[in-house]
C-alpha cells in the first residue's frame, strides 16, 4: 500500500535543477533509502518531503492527504514528520530532557513520563536527563535527536545522513539500533545517505539518485544484482563490466560460456558480475591450455595484491575467449577471498556463481 | 665525588625536565610581569575610588551619597537603561533578522547602514536632534537619541550570531510542530542570548559613561553631574562620591549581565559546516518590513547628515577656519594613533598569556584588563587628575596622562582583537622556530606577533576610533591649549555656535566612517572563519 506518493516533483535553484521530475512511492511502515553521490539532489528531495522547501512542480501525498501540489505546500510544522539531521541539531540551550520534550506540550502532565519512555526506547541512560548536548558523545546525541523526533509520534521519519558523523564501529551499531526502534514503532522511514552499504543494509527499498534524477528504485537485492546502468552498478558496489555475446540460454565472455536467461536477445551486450560471484580454482597448466576453444574460462595469475579480507588478483585470460572479447593485453582484476588464494604464475579455472546481469 | 655524583646524577631525566621546565617558564614569567604592570595601572581608578571613600570618612560618605540628588540621578539612570536597552534589542533583532534571514530587497545595503550610525559620535547625534527639534529634552529625548546612537552595538553581534546559528535547528523546530513565529521565539531567539547580553551590556555601560549626549538633551545622569561638580569645585568629595556610586552602577550592570547570561553553552554542537540558511520569503510583507530599516536609517543617519549639511550650507566657506580645523584634526589623529599604539602594546602580554598560558593568575590579570574598559571616562579621568595632582604633579595635564587614560579606557578593545588573532597562530609554529634555534622571545616576536599583525592592526583601528570620538576624559585631562575635534566641537556647541561646530562634526564622521566599515567587515570575517 502506498503511503507516501511523490509524482513528478521538480525543484530548481536558479539554473541548476536539484530535483528533476522524481516519482517515487513508499509503502506504509517500510524503510526507504535515498542514495547518491553528493550533489545528486537527495538531500533536496528529503527537504521537499519534510516541507522545508516547496517544489516548483509535481505532487506529493501522504496517506492520501496532499502535502504539496506544485509550490503550494503544507508547511513543515503541520506535516507530522520527524527529522533527524547529520549531527543531531540538538538545541544547545536546552537540557537533554527539554530537547526530547521540545515537541510535547509543556502543560501535559504525562510529559515527564513520556520523556522517560522515549529515553528508554532509544536506550539512553536517564542520568543524562539533566545534561547538555555538548556533554554527550556523537552517538548519544543522535539517540537524543531520534527520541526528540519520535516524541510526537510522526507518521514519517526523515533521516538526513544521521550516521555519517559517527565512527565506523559505532555507525553500524547505531544503524541497527535505529532500524530496530523505527521498526518497533512502525514508522515509515526515509534515509538519505551517500554510503551505498548503509543504504543496502538499512532499507527495504533503495532509490538511487544522480544529477537530480531518480535513476532506479527497488529492493536492495534487485538494485545490487540488476542495476539499470553501469554507473549505478559501480556505485552500489565493486562491479566487473564485460562485453559479451548473447546466445540461446548462454553468454560468451572472457570467463567462458555462462548460462543465462537471455530471453530473445542476441548479438553483443554488456554484462556485469559482482566480484563475489567469481571463484578461482587452481588447475595444472596443461588443463588450462589444452582446449583454447572450450566453454570453460581459464586464466593465469600474473600479480596478487594481498589486502586481508579482500585480495586483488590480476589475471591474464588463457585461450581464445580473451582474444574474442578484446581482453588480450590488459589483465582482468578480480577481487577474491584470502582463503585458497592462488600464487603468482598459477593457472586457474574461473567459475561463475549465479547469473550475470545483462544491461539493456 | 661519589656523593655529589649521586645527587646530581641520580636522575638525569629529572634534571633535563627541570631545565626544560625552567626554560619554558622563563618567557612566561617576564610576560606575566609586564601584564602585571598593566593590570596595576588598570586598578588605579578603582583604587582611587576606594581610597577616596576611606579618606572622606563614613559620615561624610553617608551625607554625600544618601541624598535626594543622588536618588534623582539614580532614578534617571535606571529609567534610561530600562527604556533604551529593550528598545534597542527589539530594533537590533528585527533589523538583524530582516537583513540576515529574509529576502528583504537591498539586505546587504541595509546591513551596512545599520552599522554606519557608529561613525557618528553620540554627542553629534544629539547635536543633530537638538538642531531639528530644539524642544527635545529629558527622558524621551535621551532614550530616542541613545537608541539611535547605540543600537549598532547590538546589531553587530546579533547579526553575526544569526549567521552562525545552524538553520537545521529551525527545520527541526518546524518538524516538531512549531509555526514560524514559535520557531523564532523558541529556537532562534534563545541562541541569540549571548549576543544580546553582550550587546546590551555594552550599551548599558555607554549609557552610564556618556556625557555629551545627555548634556545637550538636558537629561541629568551621573556622568553629567560629576563633570558639573568637577568644573565647579575641581576635585571635591561630592564629585568623587558620585563617581563611587557610578562605579557601583557599572558593577551592578556587569553582575546583572553575568546573571542573565549564565554559563550555558550556545555554540553549535556537532561537526562539519552548517548549511547556509535559506532566507524567508517576505512576499507582500516586504513593503511594510522595508519601513523598519528605512525609518531607522532616516533617523539614525538621515537626521545627522541632513543637519550637518544644513549647517554647513548655512555656514558656507566662512566657517572653514582651516588653521584651527587643521590643528584640531592633526591633534586628534596624533592622539588617536599614539593612544591606540599604547593600548595595543599594553595589551600584547595579556593577550599572549590568555592564549598560551591560561590559568588562575592569568584569569585574575585578564579580569583587571577588562574591568577598566567598563569604567566611564569621567571616573578614569577623575582618578588620574587626583593621582597626578597628589602624587606626580609634573604629569598633571600632560599628554602622557591623557594617553594613559585612553590606554586604560580602550584596553579591552585592543585585547579582544589581539587575543583572537594570537589564538590563530598555532603554538606549534613557535615550537618549530625554537627548534630551529630561535630564543623563545624571538619565536614570539618573529612568528606569533607577525601572524597576529592583522589582528593588531584592527585593534589599533578600533581604539583609534574610540579615541577620535572620546569627549569626557579629553575635556578633563587634556593639557591647556590642546584642541581636538571633539573638544573644539564641544566648546562651539556650548556657545550655541552650531554653524561653526559643523565642520568639526563632519571631520569626526569622516575619520570614523572607514573604521566603522572595517569593524563591520571584521565581524563578518570572524564569523566566516
CATH class of the largest domain in chain A: Alpha Beta
Give unreliable regions of chain A as ranges.
Answer: none
Mean pLDDT of chain A: 88
CA(first)-CA(last) distance of chain B: 61 Å
- What does the overall shape of chain A look like? elongated
Biggest sheet details of chain A:
6 strands, mixed
Query: Domains counted in the coordinates of chain A: how many?
Result: 2
* Biggest interface, residues from each chain: A-B, 39 and 29 residues
Structural class assignment of chain B: mainly alpha
- Count of extended strands of chain A: 21
Name the poorly predicted regions of chain B.
1-10
Give the amount of beta strand of chain B, in percent.
Answer: under 5%
**What kind of sheet is the major sheet of chain B?**
none
GO molecular function (chain A): ABC-type ferric iron transporter activity; ATP binding; ATP hydrolysis activity
Family (chain A): Belongs to the ABC transporter superfamily.
GO biological process, one term (chain A): quaternary ammonium group transport
Protein name (chain A): Iron(III) transport system ATP-binding protein
Amino acid at each position: 500500500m502506498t503511503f507516501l506518493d511523490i509524482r513528478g516533483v521538480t525543484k530548481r535553484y536558479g539554473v541548476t535543477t536539484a530535483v528533476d521530475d522524481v516519482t517515487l512511492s513508499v509503502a506504509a511502515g517500510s524503510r526507504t533509502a535515498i542514495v547518491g553521490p553528493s550533489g545528486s539532489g537527495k538531500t533536496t528531495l528529503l527537504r521537499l518531503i519534510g516541507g522545508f522547501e516547496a517544489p516548483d512542480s509535481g505532487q506529493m501525498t501522504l496517506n492520501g492527504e496532499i502535502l504539496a501540489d506544485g509550490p503550494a505546500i503544507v508547511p513543515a510544522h503541520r506535516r507530522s514528520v520527524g527529522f533527524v539531521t547529520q549531527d543531531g541539531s540538538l538545541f544547545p540551550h536546552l537540557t537533554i530532557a527539554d530537547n526530547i520534550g521540545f515537541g510535547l506540550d509543556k502543560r501535559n502532565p504525562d510529559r515527564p513520563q513520556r520523556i522517560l519512555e522515549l529515553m528508554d526506547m532509544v536506550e539512553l541512560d536517564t542520568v543524562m536527563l539533566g545534561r547538555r548536548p555538548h556533554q554527550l558523545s556523537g552517538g548519544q546525541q543522535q539517540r537524543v535527536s531520534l527520541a526528540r523526533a519520535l516524541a510526537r509520534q510522526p507518521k514519517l521519519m526523515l533521516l538526513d545522513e544521521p550516521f555519517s558523523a559517527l565512527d565506523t564501529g559505532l555507525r553500524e551499531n547505531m544503524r541497527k539500533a535505529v532500524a530496530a526502534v523505527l521498526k518497533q514503532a512502525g514508522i515509515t522511514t526515509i534515509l538519505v545517505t551517500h554510503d551505498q552499504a548503509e543504504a543496502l543494509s538499512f532499507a527495504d527499498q533503495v532509490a538511487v539518485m544522480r544529477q537530480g534524477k531518480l535513476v532506479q528504485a527497488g529492493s536492495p537485492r534487485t538494485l545490487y544484482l540488476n542495476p539499470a546502468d553501469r554507473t549505478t552498478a559501480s556505485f552500489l558496489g565493486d562491479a566487473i563490466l564485460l562485453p559479451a555475446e548473447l546466445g540461446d540460454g548462454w553468454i560468451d565472455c572472457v570467463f567462458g560460456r555462462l548460462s543465462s536467461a537471455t530471453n530473445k536477445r542476441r548479438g553483443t551486450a554488456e554484462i556485469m558480475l559482482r566480484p563475489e560471484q567469481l571463484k578461482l580454482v587452481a588447475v595444472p597448466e596443461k588443463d588450462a591450455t589444452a582446449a583454447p576453444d572450450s566453454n570453460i574460462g581459464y586464466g593465469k595469475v600474473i600479480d596478487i595484491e594481498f589486502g586481508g579480507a579482500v585480495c586483488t588478483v590480476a589475471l591474464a585470460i588463457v585461450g581464445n575467449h580473451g582474444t574474442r572479447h578484446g581482453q588480450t593485453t590488459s589483465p582482468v582484476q578480480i577481487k577474491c577471498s584470502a582463503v585458497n588464494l592462488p600464487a603468482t604464475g598459477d593457472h586457474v579455472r574461473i567459475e561463475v556463481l549465479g547469473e550475470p546481469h545483462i544491461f539493456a | 665525588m661519589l656523593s655529589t655524583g649521586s645527587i646530581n646524577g641520580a636522575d638525569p631525566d629529572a634534571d633535563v625536565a627541570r631545565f626544560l621546565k625552567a626554560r619554558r617558564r622563563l618567557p612566561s614569567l617576564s610576560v606575566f610581569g609586564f601584564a602585571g604592570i598593566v593590570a596595576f595601572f588598570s586598578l588605579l581608578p578603582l583604587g582611587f575610588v576606594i581610597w577616596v571613600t576611606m579618606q572622606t570618612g563614613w559620615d561624610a560618605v553617608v551625607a554625600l551619597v544618601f541624598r535626594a540628588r543622588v536618588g534623582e540621578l539614580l532614578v534617571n539612570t535606571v529609567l534610561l537603561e530600562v527604556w533604551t536597552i529593550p528598545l534597542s534589542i527589539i530594533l537590533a533583532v528585527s533589523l538583524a533578522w530582516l537583513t540576515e534571514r529574509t529576502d528583504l530587497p537591498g539586505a546587504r545595503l541595509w546591513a551596512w547602514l545599520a552599522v554606519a550610525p557608529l561613525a557618528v559620535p553620540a554627542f553629534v547625534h544629539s547635536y543633530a536632534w537638538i538642531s531639528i527639534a530644539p524642544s527635545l529634552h529629558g527622558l524621551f529625548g535621551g532614550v530616542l537619541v541613545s537608541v539611535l546612537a547605540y543600537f549598532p552595538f547590538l546589531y553587530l553581534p546579533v547579526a553575526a550570531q544569526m549567521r552562525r546559528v545552524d538553520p537545521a535547528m529551525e527545520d527541526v523546530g518546524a518538524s516538531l510542530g512549531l509555526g514560524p513565529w514559535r520557531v523564532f521565539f523558541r529556537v532562534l531567539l534563545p541562541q541569540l542570548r549571548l549576543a544580546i547580553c553582550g550587546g546590551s551590556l555594552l550599551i548599558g555601560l555607554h549609557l552610564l559613561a556618556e556625557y555629551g549626549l545627555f548634556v545637550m538633551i538636558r537629561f541629568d545622569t551621573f556622568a553629567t553631574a560629576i563633570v558639573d561638580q568637577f568644573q565647579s569645585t575641581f576635585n571635591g568629595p561630592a564629585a568623587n562620591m558620585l563617581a563611587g556610586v557610578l562605579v557601583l552602577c557599572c558593577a551592578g550592570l556587569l553582575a546583572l549581565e553575568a546573571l542573565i547570561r549564565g554559563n550555558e553553552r550556545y555554540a553549535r554542537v556537532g561537526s562539519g559546516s552548517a548549511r547556509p540558511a535559506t532566507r524567508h520569503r517576505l512576499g507582500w510583507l516586504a513593503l511594510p518590513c522595508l519601513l523598519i530599516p528605512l525609518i531607522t536609517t532616516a533617523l539614525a543617519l538621515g537626521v545627522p547628515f541632513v543637519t550637518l549639511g544644513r549647517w554647513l550650507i548655512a555656514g558656507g566657506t566662512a566657517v572653514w577656519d582651516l588653521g584651527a580645523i587643521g590643528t584640531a584634526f592633526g591633534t586628534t589623529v596624533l592622539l588617536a594613533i599614539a593612544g591606540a599604539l599604547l593600548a595595543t602594546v599594553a595589551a600584547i602580554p595579556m593577550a599572549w598569556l590568555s592564549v598560551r598560558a591560561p590559568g588562575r593568575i592569568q584569569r585574575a590579570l585578564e579580569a583587571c584588563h577588562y574591568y577598566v574598559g567598563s569604567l566611564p571616562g569621567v571616573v578614569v579621568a577623575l582618578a588620574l587628575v587626583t593621582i597626578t595632582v597628589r602624587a606626580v604633579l609634573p604629569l598633571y595635564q600632560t599628554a602622557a596622562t591623557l594617553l594613559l587614560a585612553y590606554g586604560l579606557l580602550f584596553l579591552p578593545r585592543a585585547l579582544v582583537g589581539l587575543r583572537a588573532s594570537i589564538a590563530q597562530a598555532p603554538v606549534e609554529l613557535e615550537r618549530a622556530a625554537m627548534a630551529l634555534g630561535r630564543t623563545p622571545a624571538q619565536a614570539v616576536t618573529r612568528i606569533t606577533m607577525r601572524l597576529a599583525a592583522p589582528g593588531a592592526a584592527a585593534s589599533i583601528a578600533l581604539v583609534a576610533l574610540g579615541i577620535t570620538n572620546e569627549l569626557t576624559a579629553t575635556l578633563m585631562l587634556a593639557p591647556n591649549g590642546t584642541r581636538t575635534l571633539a573638544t573644539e566641537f564641544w566648546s562651539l556647541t556650548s556657545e550655541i555656535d552650531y554653524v561653526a561646530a559643523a565642520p568639526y562634526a563632519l571631520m569626526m564622521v569622516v575619520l570614523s566612517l572607514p573604521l566603522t566599515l572595517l569593524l563591520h567587515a571584521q565581524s563578518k570575517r570572524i564569523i566566516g572563519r
